[in-house]
Amino acid sequence: MVYGLIVSGGKGIRMGSEIPKQFLPLGGIPVLIRTLMIFDACPQVDALVLVLPEAYLEYFDTLGYSPNKPLYRVKAGEERQDSVRHGLELIVELDPESLVLIHDGVRPLVSPEVLETGVRLAMIHGAAACGVKPKDTVKEMGSDGLSAGTLDRAKLFLIHTPQVFQSAQILSAHRKILLEGIPVTDDTTVFERYYYPVRLFEDSYANIKITTVEDLIMAEALLKV
Ligand SMILES: Nc1ccn([C@@H]2O[C@H](COP(=O)(O)OP(=O)(O)OP(=O)(O)O)[C@@H](O)[C@H]2O)c(=O)n1
Ligand SMILES: C[C@](O)(CO)[C@H](O)COP(=O)(O)O
Hints:
This protein is α/β, with parallel strands linked by helices. It contains 6 helices and 11 strands. The protein has helices at 31-40, 80-94, 112-125, 167-180, 187-194, 213-223; strands at 2-7, 25-26, 29-30, 47-52, 71-75, 99-104, 128-132, 139-141, 147-150, 158-166, 199-202. Strand 8 (139-141) and strand 9 (147-150) form a beta hairpin. The longest helix is centred in the middle third of the chain and has 15 residues, at 80-94. The chain starts with a strand and ends with a helix. The mean pLDDT is 98. Ligand LQXTBERG binds at residues 80, 104, 159-161, 185-186, 209, 211.
């Protein structure tokens, strides 16, 4: 089995909207529903696990979308890594041999090709994640606000989601990092700490994470391309 784990349990503090950003309309359709529709239409994905804030577990029904694939709802945790772990616990209980595509619910412009490539590469290499090369020069900045060198762009990769793993391995890695008390913002960081390097592959620059108001404006524009 291949599961799509869509983490949508955040508060969207940086967006500053009344409802969490995953429920805001993008071209008339809530951000999260756009993301779910792409996973629901993906032939490589068998079932969906959706992580939601506790207060929005039932609110989801009011959005009027019922996917064709089985959809399981899971309560979010305090941080993203807790939400991911909650989803993985259910997935491993359902099928310990499965693959999982972990994806931010607030990346509604992900392409079907990236889902397909992620699954294919994870089947070959064990784990795969998409991202893009930086377009800007990247500086290090000291705590004094002064420049402290320039990083070699050729060696840098800005990581996106989906990130694809064997469900049991990534759950075990998440449990270990929790015990170590290390905070993380993405799952490749967790995986490579206890297993092996992740196969990286290029994504579209359009697969943005909707974080602040500017991102919503950009996403609206990208929908028209
Ligand atoms: N406790 C959390 C925190 C985040 N997420 C999800 O992880 C993805 C990426 O997180 P981010 O953009 O940081 O979302 P928020 O945490 O909602 O944003 P903010 O930090 O501005 O509050 C989002 O789909 C978000 O809903 C989650 O499932 N559970
Ligand atoms: C997982 C992620 O989307 C990869 O770009 C990102 O790390 C999430 O970070 P955030 O701090 O939770 O926005």
